[in-house]
Amino acid sequence: MKKILSRRDFLKSSASLLALSGLAGARTALAASSTEVLLHSLKVRIPHLPKNFDGFRIGFLSDPHLGPWVPDDLVAQGVRLLMSERADLILLGGDFIGIPDAFPGRLLPYVPNPGFNSTACKDLPEAIYTRAADILGKLKAPAGVFAVYGNHDNWVEPQLCSSKLGAKGIRLLKNDQVRVARDNEELLLIGSEDYWTGIPVWPKLGPRLSHQTRILLSHNPDYVSYLLDSTTAEFDLALCGHTHGGQIKLPLIGALSYNIEDTRFADGLVAHQRAQVFTSRGIGVVEVPFRLNCPPEVNLLMLVR
């Protein structure tokens, strides 16, 4: 069930790109495609959607990776965009922290976030989670704000992540369920643990009922692939992050890596025969401090009948 963690191919490709373009080129790429967050709005058609949830709006923000490479204001931009849309429910897809810890990233001096001027800073995780919670804590929605862990959060003091976000009213779901009711109809939110670093467990729910829509929040889309291909789990929509949309997309070649095994759900909305699956490009970066032809985004998804 679990996938082996490896970014080897990504790192080799990224290192080659940096060698070809030089650090100045990397900075240009960052300025060109990583300094403005886009709002990606879309309608998601759900068969048998309860009528009280027709037009229900979900704000989605994933992979902020706040830290030395991601400025506070980049994440704050995403927060402001979502708040301007007045979503009914806001979901966060994990990977709140970003600490460069691998080659070639640790060799790159480019630091766009002056608040974290050294990856060796004392108490860096607490500083990052505190500031991430301060920024993301401005997110409010009538049905609440919920989140799941990403693999980076589980690697770096997950309890600290949970406590800091929780203090700002953001509930971290770890194989938990939340019901949003409208009259006698409901939206059931299922938040799973991370596929790489946790033990995701599908709840015992039985068949879907006519008055219920099920939404799965999973950091890694490979877990969604597993559920759809190897289980009888029933849900209507899955929201994922983790892939960064590829982060680096070369002309004609495309993404160097999505860091998942099943690339069907690597980016954007995909209509599987059993469910709709949406994977966000997210906001932050990993391994190298820039994006190329893959701008950061937050998302507004409107459910329609």
Keywords for this entry:
single chain; 305 residues; alpha/beta; Purple Acid Phosphatase, chain A, domain 2; six-stranded mixed β-sheet; 6 helices
SSE arrangement, N to C: HEEHEHEHHEEEEHEEEEEE
Assembly of the depicted chains: single chain
β-strand percent reads 15-25%
Q: The CATH topology is what?
A: Purple Acid Phosphatase, chain A, domain 2
- Largest sheet properties: 6 strands, mixed
The averaged pLDDT comes out at 88
Number of strands: 14
Topology:
Blueprint: H1 8-33, E1 38-45, E2 57-61, H2 72-84, E3 89-92, H3 124-136, E4 145-147, H4 151-155, H5 158-166, E5 171-172, E6 176-182, E7 185-191, E8 212-217, H6 221-230, E9 237-240, E10 249-250, E11 254-255, E12 268-271, E13 276-279, E14 297-304
Structure explained in plain terms:
With 305 residues, the protein is an alpha/beta fold. The chain has one domain (8-304): Metallo-dependent phosphatases (Purple Acid Phosphatase, chain A, domain 2). 25% of the residues lie in helices and 22% in strands. It is built from 6 helices and 14 strands. It has helices at 8-33, 72-84, 124-136, 151-155, 158-166, 221-230; strands at 38-45, 57-61, 89-92, 145-147, 171-172, 176-182, 185-191, 212-217, 237-240, 249-250, 254-255, 268-271, 276-279, 297-304. The strands form 3 sheets. The chain has a 6-stranded mixed beta sheet, covered by helices on one side. It has a 6-stranded mixed beta sheet with strand order 6-7-8-9-13-12, with no helix packed on it. Strand 2 (57-61), helix 2 and strand 3 (89-92) form a beta-alpha-beta unit. The radius of gyration is 19 Å and the shape is globular.
